[in-house]
Amino acid sequence: MENNYYTKTEIDLKFDAIQNELRYNRELTQLGFEKINERFERVNDRIDDMATKTQLMFSSFREEQSLARIDELERERKIKREFILWSIGTTIALLAVLIPLIIHS
User: pTM to 2 decimals?
Assistant: First the structure.
């Protein structure tokens, strides 16, 4: 390397080294992007799974709430029916006592 000159062979070797380094860096970058994409896909899958589980949880919660509401309405209906039957029974009993009193007086 006299007088700061390079031979054609030295320049070709340097260009080959640069080209190889660029190719290697491009491959590394591509692998890095593939890994990042895989991680994003896994995160998306997890988010989808969580969304599905949340929907199932809320749907089962709604079903439980609906069943609880149905049970509550059924209990209220039974209580109302019982009240009506007690009212009818009490009215009949009062009439059974009052009618003979009215007739004998």
Answer: 0.44
